[in-house]
Amino acid sequence: MTEGRSLALFDFDGTLTTKDTMLAYLVHTRGWLGVLPGVILSSPWVVGHLLKLVPNDVAKVRLLSAVIGGMRRSELEEAARTFADRVEGWLRPGALERVRWHVEQGHDVWLVSASLDLWVGPWAERHGLRLLSTRGRWEGDVFTGQLETANCHGPEKVRRVREVTDPDAYDRRYGYGDSSGDAEMLALCDEVAFRPFRA
Asked: Contacts for 36-39 with beta carbons within 8 Å, 24 or more apart?
């Protein structure tokens, strides 16, 4: 253990933000009229996930493929850049201040998100944060709607954290999350905030 080093792990959707950003990004990119047919097409898998009958990564791929599969990188990345502006309005009170406090203290800060790097990446970059997230698959400049990595959720969050750092090497470990998908990541930490930044 290295004296004085601290690690801070933040979930993104629902922890720092007041809403899930995947559907919000899809609507931002395609508009409701563009999203609705894909929602209807993927609804058996989405409903199945809500009923805990379908894994979240399967439902995610079905929805992403139906709505933005086949779109070009330039279009999706431009939408993601403007989407980062909208995310600022969905941050929970005090959330960004807490992130900045960790940065100012010199802690190693990571966003660890099941959302795709496609739309979380520009926001993380804007605030100088390192990101561990689900990555989408591309064929050249075309988004396939599939996942390049395992969905960064549950035990996968821990695996991804351990790929980039050794949590046991830190003097203090802070964790911030809001759902069962964060449980394993929070178990790494000795200072845990579950569903923080709520009035």
From this structure: 37/66, 38/63, 38/66, 38/67, 39/63, 39/66, 39/67
CA atoms of 35 and 42, how far apart (whole Å): 11
pLDDT in tens, 132-170: 999 999 999 999 999 999 999 999 999 999 999 999 999
What digits encode the pLDDT tens for the residues 119-128?
Answer: 999 999 999 9
Q: Is CATH 3.40.50.2000 the right assignment for the domain spanning 6-194?
A: no
Cα separation of 150 and 152, whole Å? 6
Residue 103 and residue 97: Cα distance in Å, rounded?
Answer: 10
Distance from C-alpha of 121 to C-alpha of 72, rounded to nearest angstrom: 17
Token pair, residue 36, equals: 């609705």
User: What pTM was estimated for this model as a whole?
Assistant: 0.94
Question: How far, rounded to the nearest angstrom, does the alpha carbon of residue 121 sit from its chain's CA centroid?
Answer: 9
- Ranges of the chain with pLDDT below 70: 1-3
CA distance 122 to 175: 22
DSSP state of 172: E
